[in-house]
Amino acid sequence: MTRPTVGTRGGVSRGVIAAAIAGTFALALGAFLLSFEALQDLARLAGIAGGQAWLWPLIVDGVILQATISVVALRDAEGSARRFAWMLLAAGTGVSVAANITHAVLTADQRVPGLVAALVASVPPLVLVAMTHLTVELIRNAGPRHDQDQQEQPPSPVVVTERRVPDRTPPALEAGPAQDHDAREASELRSAPSRGTNSRSRQERDANRREAARLAGQGLSYREIARRRGVHPTTVARWLNAPDPADERNDDEHEPDTEQP
């Protein structure tokens, strides 16, 4: 895409833009002076003192200038602000045109028809409005267009680099004889408390069984024995009906050897 050269805007040189601004400003100034003279003379005819008559055209045409600038400046503003600026511009233009026509009708030569005089008198205020608006637009658009330059510039390529993260996973440890020995010792230590607990439980059962047998030998009932031992009568019956552990051990020791010589 071809971009405008330096000192141009959209293909139009800044010199052309400056000449256009100067021309519209000159036309607006000429229209303002013609309207100013007509309105000042009308103010004198209306009874305003000569030293103050110049203020009336300054107020009327000044409203046109200010309203035109406001219309351009408030282009992107809220609707109420834009409407007020346009209303002010229309009111100022209407008053200026009507005043110029009135002055022309009152002071025109008898040889000139009133309609022609009115048309001639209405030109300066209308030209003033148009040239003022055009001058403001030219000045507003004479600056560099950053948005167009940004659209014409190709986007810079984005370079994406891949970063490798080192593997921090620890290597697997090989099991050796020492580790197997440690595992066996840990297993034996865990099983040792359970063996001790089973031995104590067996000793307690044997003691309860012998005590229950002694009390039963004294002629006490199962209920009385259970009350003294703090258990249920069925537990006492199970103790007394179970074989004596000492007898079982003796039987195991005197069991004949059945193996062949």
TrEMBL record:
Species the sequence originates in: Aeromicrobium camelliae
Protein's UniProt name: DUF2637 domain-containing protein
Annotated region (Disordered), positions in chain: 142-261
Keyword Membrane appears in the UniProt entry: yes
Source taxon at top rank: Bacteria
Keywords, sorted A to Z: Membrane, Transmembrane, Transmembrane helix
Amino acid composition bias (Basic and acidic residues), ranges on this chain: 179-188, 201-213
Signal peptide positions (record): none
Segments passing through the bilayer: 12-34, 54-74, 86-106, 112-136
InterPro entries given in the database record: DUF2637, Homeodomain-like_sf, IS30-like_HTH
Keyword Zinc appears in the UniProt entry: no
One Pfam family recorded for the sequence: DUF2637
Residues annotated as domain Transposase IS30-like HTH: 207-238
